[in-house]
Hints:
By secondary structure, the protein is α/β, with parallel strands linked by helices. It has 19 helices and 15 strands.
Amino acid sequence: MRRTSTAAFEAVDRPDFGIERSERSSCSEKAIDLPARRAPRAVAASAAMQFHVLSFEGPDGYSRAGGIASRIEGLAQALAGLGFESHLWFVGDPAFPGHESRGRLHLHRWCQWISRYHPAGVYDGEEGKRNDFAGSLPPYLMGQVLRPHLARGRHAVVLAEEWQTADAVLHLDWLLRQAGLRERASLLWNANNVFGFERIDWARLAEASVITTVSRYMKHSMHSLGVDPIVIPNGLSADAFLPPDRAGVVELQRRLRGRTVIAKVARFDPDKRWLGALEIVDALKRQGHCPLLIARGGAEAHGHEVLASARARGLRVVDRNGEDGAGVPGLLARLTELEQVDMVNLKAPVDPESRRVLFRGADAVLANSSHEPFGLVGLETMAAGGIACTGISGEDYAVPGRNALVLQTQDPREFVGLFERLKAHPAEAESIRRAGRQTAKHYAWPEIIQRLFLPRLDLLRYCET
């Protein structure tokens, strides 16, 4: 669990939230074009239905720390694109406006006064931000947005994400009941992972909201807590389906001709099986496949163990920073002079366009974990036309041998055997790529919302009563 000192938070005076929020509401609005596609049912209901997403992570660079930010941004944009008035409440960059409108999507940056004292990112000063989020956001949301909407006989859906928002849900539930408006709002709380579960009062949270999660694996993992969550899977945003830059893919494969290119993009966390990836590279090397692991991890401490283990195995590792520029040209510039290298450690972020090129150009993308609540990287790989190699926990979308390679053991020989079969049968590899792209289309956010989320709303209201 992420923890940071709250000394700076405790050292400053708490501002008058009512004054601060009213000032924020006067910020000028910027309109941008959003996807025009709407479902007929969504169009008819859009005026009566309002959506609110509560999350620590969000679309700002300051607010991005992992896959949750991608989920939140894609979900909020898709809801707005389907015609719903949508609000995203998150711990935003302190330098940006407190409120910003993008068509039907309204961004509300919270905890900015605390974030000014914690510039390292969304989880810097986490405890102080959590307390402020739970204490000040629900009264403002209730008084300024929800009450006027609900008083007109309309409905609202509030979807909160991760353990940091659990107390905010409890507070909002109490406020709605006090106002006699609880039956007009659906409160959902979603678990993307098991982080912070020990800090949640599950009985109270289950009474205040409908609990959801992202996969059947997570659903069964949570049964021991005395809850039975509803599964609403993650989705992919529209840019995940943009075709990878063809020239970039061709150039990447040209530069790395003769190598077996394995990509892995994940946090440096033991659950992500980085050490197992090194075993796979070692095994491929012994079999004469000339592997090259293109690795993008994070700043986590486990990264030092991974790199030390690689060198201890005799693997030749080089670090590549981002000095060579951004985008696909920058990625390609970092993938030069690697003839004697077994692993290249990309220390700078890889933007979405470059990720699509990498996922499509690699021979396989290792997205296997020992504990994977959903597996967004595997699904992104499929959307890009790559070959995803997943584990067997939360990746409900993966069908072994049809749209992905699925590893069920920690034995590197399992991957080597599956990979060698694909190399010997190129038609099977191409079939997996095609099936993967088709699978990914079913997980586009508009599809998830229309097929799974909206039809569930009536049931969710029933569950709350």
